[in-house]
Amino acid sequence: MVILSKFAENLSALMMEHELNAPALAKLLDTDRTNITRYLRAERLPSYNVFVKLIEFFNVSADVLLGKIDYCDVQKFYPIKPFGTTLRHILQETNITQYRVIKDLNISQASMYFWLLNNRLPTVENIDRLADYLDVRVDYLLGRIS
Question: Which one of 4, 42, 113, 139 has the minimum C-beta count within 10 Å?
Answer without folding.
Answer: 113
